[in-house]
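Progress against Task 2.4 (sequence-to-structure conversion) is shown through the following example record, which the project officer requested during the mid-term review.
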Amino acid sequence: MSVLKLAWKNIVSNPLNLILSIILFGLGIGLISFLMLLNTQLSENFEKNLADIDLVIGAKGSPLQMILCSMYHIDNPTGNIKVDEAKAFLNPGHPLLEISVPLSLGDSYKRHRIVGTNDGILELYNAQLDQGKIWAQDLDVTIGAGVARATGLKIGDSFKSSHGFDDDADLAHDHSAFNVVGILKPSGSVVDQLILTNPSTVWAVHDHTAEDHEGHDHRHHTPPVRSNEELLQHPEKDITSLLIKYKDKTNYRTLSLPRAINENTDMQAASPPYEINKLYSLIGVGTDAIRWLAILIAFVSAISIFISLYKSMKERKYELSLIRVMGGSRATLFMLIVIEGIILSFIGFVVGMIISHGGMEIMSKFLQASYRYDFTGWRVISGDAWLFIGSIALGIVAALIPAYQASYTDIHKALSEKN
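Structure tokens generated for the chain above:
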């Protein structure tokens, strides 16, 4: 019988120890793997949606809330600002700004945010048209690939929006129907989850005049706003925020721009990388605690494997002595116990992967429903390979002492005690 088969028979001969060791080991490995998988996908989503945006300008309030709302679309706006207040940053000839994209927020459809903006947002996120055309007239919308997939909307369809993020029929704007004129290619960015239209569409939908309630079509009364030049012709109107990309990030005037806005205007400016790093630090406290707990569980499970092998070795002294009598070397006994440790840690690793990836897949449904970002549990990351190596190493370390003692079993004493 080969050493591998003998090791397997020894393991399954004590099912209670086997199950306990595997559950403990699998739980520790599963928690570590789950955290790595979640952090990897969160980081990728956050990094991808930074989109070379250098600055976000909006109403005063929480800078992080403004970033999460304007760039990641997972929070509410801090308020609105007047076009007149932001006119300097909407000027196409601004010496410091390469791109300035206005956002007007407020409504959604089936929890997908409707954004009043211009086609500069497509340049920021490298989004491209797949079908139809870019929105031009009021109440025309171009939708992201994720919106089309989740809602079933296609070119030529119409729908009515709801106020805020709630998919509530009581909050629907019955007087205005949006028309789908285009669908974007999947980009892997937040644009996939957005419904894009003109800023003037957002104003029209919220203009509660008598004409609105009678069902008049806004496109016949409000000239569509398709560019920053056209937006500047409506200084009294509100927008939610501006996404800014600098011409030169090293220019000293550029570096002082956020401070100047915060100190000298009624608006606030926030740096996306800075605020996201703050968010990482807040999240990191909790994830670090869970990670250390998972590592502790993994080491406790390694101790459990050690105890299981040590106890098994003590109980099997007679069998081990017989292996020596039948020609087995000390190295054979040593390898037998080490292989048992490797088998236990390997099974524990597999169980941990099932726990982590299965748990992530279940959780991904809730994450996608809440935040409209793509998550999946069926993905292998580089950290899994290192976790596999670490798992096998733990199994080997846990088996070293029992393996050493097994290889130096006193044959004569063990046989005489048995007799």
